[in-house]
Amino acid sequence: ATAKMSLTYLNDDPEALRKILSSDVPWETYMTARLITDKDLNFIRRYDKRTEELRASMLDENGPAIVEAFLSVLKAVTKEETVHYVLALLIQMLQENPARAKLFHQQSEQHLANAPEPYMVFLRLLQRVDWQTQEHSAKLLTAIIEARPKKSSAFANGILAGDQSSASVAAAYGGPDPAEPHISAFIDWLVAQLRRPSNPTKSVPLATSILSCLLKERGCRQLFLRSGGVQVLPPLIKACNSPTNSQLLYELCLCVWQMTYTQAGAEALANSGATKALVDVARTAQKEKVFRIAMSSLRNLLGHEELGLAADMVEAGLPKVVATRQLQAWGDDDVVEILTFMDEKLKAGIAILSNFDKYKKELMSGSLEWSPMHTSDIFWRENIDKFEDKDFLVLRHLLKLIESSREVKTLAVGCNDLGMFILHHPQGRYIVGDLRGKELVMRLMAHPDPEVQKQALLCVQKVMLTRDKLEFLGSAA
């Protein structure tokens, strides 16, 4: 599986590689200038320009020493053509057999003084200005990260060395991952490429392809979160949503899907417009794999029930997409199963949404009745965010009703609703205070009708109570 995954980002235009490798490098001059040792030169000359079979047998015999010889050239020589040549040779070496990435981590008899340190060489090369160096260095770095021998259990469980709270936890897992600072620097570079591409057409596809591989590891997901990369994905999906970009779109959605497995990742995605972006992909995707990964991501987001995204998906038009797609024939049983699951789950979302629509309609009619939604904690919890829409438009209508209605029942229900808003919205009492709600309700405490008096009094209590007391009241209710 690793070989297959590796090959996806190691794919390189064979013609371009051949062109680079057709030039000649003056290796001897580097030895004369003391930039490389005669031992390194010896390995390089025996390897360079040989047939694939000969190179393979040399690598089987002296793989680590050959890799170290080329790394010493990359460390010492700055000439662009030489750097390009060595990077192309290393890419070719891994294309012929991706398992050779482990050679970067093995020590040879030739270099016993220094432990292998393959990360810094390529991280430094990423800072060069030319794209070819950046691209090849990024591909090699990915293979090296994936092939590292000492993957730590802490990193595999998403526990980072930099987190103060988790130092003892990391120790319990056998210590942090020695490669973590390098992986972190690389992920920061990849996210920067997504934000400000150094190559207008190639940066985003390359960074996305690499991230879709790295994010298999939970530690990488945490680093990606920390770098602010999650927020970059939904706008990119929107910008790339066309059949001509199906591979890039698939890999962007693959990154999203992997991030939906962390609570913080799902939250960051929900807050940066992922729901609508994914529904749009599901609506227009022509390739089954693109549709499946978008739907799998939506399914996972729906599984984080505390985010309450069912209603957002309904608003984005997902039920119609699901209904239309269920009429298609699918080669993959998973797709059929996801569609059935989503169909059932979204019915609950439609109920929540239609309840809020009913509530708005009732409010606009100017007359309120004691229907179940006014006293249902579930209704208020699920819909409280919607009261924020259009600068608290619905809340302003409610306050207008409390101020001007002559109907006793409407005033009582209105006071109840205002109390429910204060109870369920984290800033409820302040928002109501700013909109002069407190004065309006206090006036109704002197209303001749006992029910209005009672509801006004209960509402004023909630305006006066601090958050912790309100939460106690909510849990008691």
Explain this structure.
It is a single chain. By secondary structure, the chain is mainly α. It is 70% helix and 0% strand. It has 28 helices and no strands. It has helices at 2-10, 14-21, 27-32, 38-47, 52-76, 80-96, 118-125, 131-146, 153-156, 167-172, 180-195, 203-214, 218-226, 233-240, 246-259, 263-271, 274-284, 288-303, 310-315, 318-326, 333-365, 377-383, 389-404, 408-424, 428-434, 437-444, 450-464, 467-476. α4 (38-47) packs antiparallel against α5 (52-76), α6 packs parallel to α8 and α8 (131-146) packs parallel to α12 (203-214). The longest helix has 33 residues, at 333-365. It is elongated, with a radius of gyration of 30 Å. It starts with a helix and ends with a helix. Mean pLDDT is 91; it is low at 1-6.
Number of helices: 28
**Helicity, in percent?**
55-70%
Q: List SSEs in N-to-C order.
A: HHHHHHHHHHHHHHHHHHHHHHHHHHHH
Shape: elongated
Mean pLDDT level: 91
Overview features:
477 residues, mainly alpha, elongated, disordered N terminus, 28 helices
Summarize the structure.
The protein is mainly α and 477 residues long. It has helices at 2-10, 14-21, 27-32, 38-47, 52-76, 80-96, 118-125, 131-146, 153-156, 167-172, 180-195, 203-214, 218-226, 233-240, 246-259, 263-271, 274-284, 288-303, 310-315, 318-326, 333-365, 377-383, 389-404, 408-424, 428-434, 437-444, 450-464, 467-476. The longest helix has 33 residues, at 333-365.
